Amino acid sequence: MFHWCPAQTLASCVTDIEHGFPYVLCNHVVVCLFADAHSPLIGLRNLVMPLRATNFHYNELKTVVIVCDKDYIVKEWKSLCNFPKIVVLNGSPLNRANLRACNINLCDMCIILSARNSNVEDSNLVDKEAILCSLNIKAMSFDEVADAVQSLHRSASGTMQQSFPQVTSNVNAGRRGVSSGAAVPMLTELGNDANVQFLDQDDEDDPGTELYITQPFACGTAFAVSVLDSLMSTTYFNVNALTLIRTLITGGATPELEQILAEGVGITGGNSSIESLALRDRCRVAQIAINDGPFAEFGVNGCYGELFVYALRKFGILCFGLFRFRDISLSLAQNPSGKRYVITNPLGDFPLLPSDKVFCLRPFEIFERQTTRRKRRKRGKLSNVETGSNYD
Length: 392
Fold this sequence. Notes:
Structural class: alpha/beta
Order of helices and strands: HEEHEHEHEHHEHEHHHHEHEEEEE
Helix content: 10-25%
Shape: globular
Distance between the termini: 16 Å
Mean pLDDT: 78
Radius of gyration: 23 Å
Low-confidence stretches: 156-174, 373-392
Strand order of the largest sheet: 1-4-3-2-5-6-7
Oligomer: single chain
Number of strands: 13
Strand content: 15-25%
Number of helices: 12
């Protein structure tokens, strides 16, 4: 199930900086898309659907800001018009004024995509615009001068508030945002694996390094189309892997829904009932910090195997990876980077650090499971069996 709203017109959701950007955004998702009226469809609905899954309540939904040419969105709008909290900023993602207007320094994630024609002679030029956009954002600074520019945009758009009744305001007053574009969380799609070498200026990987052992891929800042080939191979040899992948990526999608979408019907609204509302409270993918929460005791001298068993037995949480700082061994005087990298399914004796974060599948509500012990008589012997409550 997904959050649905009556069909919105494109005119009610599109804006540009020339007429004033009337939205004040924070903790949102920015999609920088390079496409024009002649570009092939890439299926933005598949990107937005997991962000509108009903295991997130409506007030938890993150506003999606799509920065691209309006002429392209016209072709995709039929599949997007029923999703709430979508804003289209008409303009180029390479224009820093557009990026500042949508508060890219306050976003939770910036996704860089390209729908341009990839039939070029030099394969290194396939990802030219995506790489330039990534480097452009990293070179931006958000200091007092930038704040003054944003204030100018806000004052210029003050007269536009009345014409946009659905103003999105998710501002957290306690959050200031990053001061450098290099700290903006980004995910860049690449058509050519070899182009990953151009994403990070401080990357020491050799040009011929395989994608899966490069720094951008390990840090989760680069995604290549070839990754889908490995997922398809995994699904071929393990059918159950498809269920896990669907849960991680598409949220509440089911084979029945995929068949309906394949028929071209689209997403339609339904009647809410007690039973359907209860289905919303299902598990979700999450990151849980070790130093602040139920796993704090494992931050010092703890290992991953102990954490895995404890989380599953006590809270019904299934851990499947860690998110660790890259420069954890450097001191503050050595100016360590704020980048993190992913460690998938570590060994049981893998040591934990207080600054680690845990990738996990968690229940909708986390609470400690109450366990009891009962005695079972079998063939004259007593055995203790530990039981606990079930999680959906």
